[in-house]
Amino acid sequence: MKLLYFSDNTSGHNQRFLQKLSEAGLDVWFLDPTCAVLPDGWLPESVHWIQPKQTLPRNSDPATFSSFLPQFLDLLKEIGPDLVHAGPIQTCGYVTALSGFHPWLLTSWGSDILLSAHSGPDWEQATRLSLSSADGFFCDCDTVRTTAKTFADLKDSRIVQLPWGIKKGVFDSVGILPSNEEYRREPNTFAFICTRSWEPLYGIDTLLQAFLQAYRTNSSLRLILVAGGSQAGMVREFIRAHGLEQVVHCPGPQPKEEMPKWFRAAAAYVSCAKSDGTSVSLLEAMATGLPVVVTDIPSNREWVVDDHNGWLAPAGSADQFADRLLRARRLSEEERQLFSQRNRSSVDLCADWDRNFPRLLRMYEELVHSSIHR
Question: Has this prediction a pTM greater than 0.85?
Answer without folding.
Answer: no
